Fold this sequence. Notes:
With 388 residues, the protein is mainly alpha-helical. It has helices at 2-17, 20-49, 64-72, 86-89, 103-108, 124-151, 172-179, 181-202, 204-208, 212-216, 222-251, 268-294, 299-309, 314-323, 337-347, 354-380; strands at residues 54-58, 76-80, 95-99, 115-119. It is elongated.
Amino acid sequence: MIRQLWAVALKEFIDARRDPRSIMTLVGYSLMGPVIMLAAFTALVENQTRNEKQVAVQHLERAPGLTAHLQEHGFELEALGPDVDVTEAIANHDAILRPANDFTAMLRAGRPAQVELVLNTSKPSSQAMARRVEQAVNAWSGELASLRMMAMGVAPQAAQPIQVQKRDVASRADRAALVLSGFQVFVLIAAFFGSMHVCIDATAGERERRSLEALLVQPVSAFGLVVGKWLVAACYGLFGVALTLTAMGVLLPMAPLGELGISYQPTPLSILTMFVLIAPLALLAAGLQMLAASYAKSFKEAQTYLSLLMFVPMVPAMAVSFLQLDSEPWMFAVPVLGQQQLLGEALREVSPDPIAFLTASVIVVLAGLACVLATTRLYASERMLRGL
């Protein structure tokens, strides 16, 4: 049995090695995820640390005090003509301030003065600038309120009987795990993407080349044939995961995460730990893809089936994100979701729970074996020779 498995595995490995384009595609995807994350983090830091404070003001003369306050806080004010339509001008500006006609009169009367802040919420830069302007206006409003209360002989603190003090107990590792949560999807997909081409070539590719009949008449059991193909495909999935994690370990230290108050320096031990946590998923990915590809009558049809299966690792991440679910013990019993939770704990530099790891690993391995057994029954039937 072992010799049969070895012979089949060696044959599939040689066949897979003969397609350099598939290998280069696997390497390209493994590098693509970390490169995208590095570019995203760099752009995020540049956007967060950018200190642009240019705001347009229409009817600047109506609020001289507000104008002076904004200039003191580093804002560059651009005056707009009184006839300019702000709904059209906002296309060229991030934010526009419009004091009301009676702005100064209302302030002198001790009544709330209206100021209009025009923004475009479809533009992230406009939202950020509007927040800065609103904070500056609120700060000036607070100063005026304090001066009015002092003029009436009332302490300004009387207007704030309760002060809320925020205390963030999240560690730097917790914040790093939150920011790096998008990287988990790339690692999970790598297990599926790495084995996809091997599974297609070993099933639908064999049928399309008309070499499946010659393979089935060999003195090899259907179980040994399927298991040999399964193990080779799983090895390629592990290869994809290893490449993705290695690229992460090399590229992430280049990201300016320190500007966001995040400190994450992957070590060889942490990379190895994440690899061990994700490794069992490669067995499920290969088994599930082999089962789906075995029902395909052509190479292109198998590509269509397995391309849809690539969404499987995304579903748990999207569900947890949209439903805002916290980590629960039952999640480790759900295939793919359990590996995502384990990977999240590793990014938070938390030692994985042995019971949770065993639960998640055993379930995905059993699910992979179930797919292998289903594929074996398919290969043992005459349906494979008749082209399903």
